[in-house]
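no rush on this but wanted to send it before i forget. theres a chain ive been looking at and ive put its sequence and its fold in token form underneath. please have a look and point out which stretches look like helix strand or loop to you. thanks a lot i owe you, the record is right below:
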Amino acid sequence: MLSLLKNIKGDKAIWAVVALLALFSFLPVYSSSSNLVYVVGEGSTFGHLFKHAFLLVLGFGIIYGVHKIPTHFFKGLSLIAMPVVLLLLAYTLTQGNVIGGTNASRWIRLPFVGLGFQPSNLAAIVLMIYIARYLTKIKDKIVTFKESIVPLWIPAFLVIMLILPANFSTAAILFSMVILLCFLGGYPIKYLLAIVGTGVLCLAIFVLTAKAFPDLFENRVDTWESRWDNFVNGGDFEADYQIEKAKIAIASGGILGKGAGKSVQKNFLPQSSSDFIYAIIIEEYGLFGGFAIMAFYLFLLFRIVVVANGSNSIFGKLLVVGVGLPIIFQALINMAVAVELFPVTGQPLPLISIGGTSSWMTCLAIGIVLSVSNKDHVLSGTSSKVDDTNPLEILSGQL
């Protein structure tokens, strides 16, 4: 154990806050999983807790392994992984899984382990690395919009459009992060405005096509419309059942909460162990516990900014922002949904919600951030001058 701790590199504060969030997650997961057992009729509370522990242990193994990889390796890996994730997204979308008449093709079943895997989570990370690599390549160069269409925007739009039909919230978050990363990377603002306009136009065409020809392809447009209408105008109690139960849980938590495992609404609130776990945390640990969790994520954001600022390469800075900020953005959206500041999205709370392989993708992103903060990579020659080297030559040379 001591030898393992000695081999842990990178930002120790990030290691600490990630470990604390993961350790704390066992309490609300064990408590809220009773809904899955006694209401849904799936497994046992211990079984769900064991599965959660299994995923987190493997997740920390991913963090440890990835944070040992020199940062510049991710350039070449993103080029290799991009066509792979596009194929995975296309395969997932064409499965034709339907729930309640809407497209539910988000997962593929992993053989042998029986876990569901969302390729969109992996695709988002690969895309952000790919874009960070491209922005590094054109840094200090005069770039035209025409030149960037094929190497930058076609891959980005392909990934987002393959995610969109089954998962609007993930596609919207990814599109926002792409625009933000390009803005921070110095991509011309006038071109970004054109891309935003194009994105809005594509979304409008998609929605209008789905409404005009509802049998043309499975989609979730009616679900998006219903959720937005309920958020803006308020719906009946049945339509707003989840958010109403979440509000009851939050209101009954008070300042200090009812205590660990004493939530009542976990027995009535669907997705109490995943999408709405933050409401259960506030019910059991009060506003104090809710603000404490928020503070942990904000501290993680602070350390991500510190790591990005401290990187001595443009690629490292953009890489940390690209894979690190979505974790915080997702957490804030999850918390905002629980307190009805945002429409229902289906985004889990990173490192806390019970779930499948999405936690592994969060750990992958954290491992990449820690790789950039690993000073041993800088000392071994992985400095900013590498940014001007062809990433495929780096990869082939190292391997």
